[in-house]
Every structure is written in structure tokens, then in C-alpha cells.
Amino acid sequence: MADTETNVPVCEVVDTLSTGVLVKRRLARMRACNERDAKGKVCAGHLKRWYFFGEEVAGKFGKDAEIYRCENCKTLYLPNGEETPRTGTLSY
Ligand SMILES: [Zn+2]
Q1: pTM above 0.85, yes or no
Q2: Which residues contact 75 (CB under 8 A, 6 or more apart)?
């Protein structure tokens, strides 16, 4: 049985909230969730900037944290530190 998705990189799991929600670190330029369900199927849900996290997330990562959430499985993602922030002055 060939698994064509074995090359999908795995995200580092940073934390698990008390609600059981995973908090993972995004890979660079990652836009889709790579969480797998019980059958091993990749979620592939869209990662969207999420502003409505509760006190637990705010306490762990700061109330102004940059948090992304999969719109499908609700897994949370932190930004990848290797990505250049979009804010500020870019030098060429
Ligand atoms: Zn997902």
C-alpha cells in the first residue's frame, strides 16, 4: 500500500490546550493544515489568522500573539520564526 503523503513534513507540536486542542508550529510558507485524522488522512484545512483565542492561549503566548487556526479541525498554529515578518521596513 503506497502512501503518497509520506513526504509531508511534520510540524513541531508546541503545546496542547486543556481542551485537547493542539498548538503546532507552522512550517515556512505553510498555508494548509497537515494534521492527520484517525484514518491517517491529511486534514488540508485552511489556516486563517485567528483573533478570538481565550485566556489560556493568551496566557501561554501573549494576548497579542499571532495565532492561526485550521478552519477544518481547529488545530492552532504559531507562526514560523524563520519567516520574515510582513510588518516593518524591508531592505533590499
Ligand atoms: Zn486541520
Answers
A1: no
A2: 21, 22, 23, 24, 33, 35, 43, 69
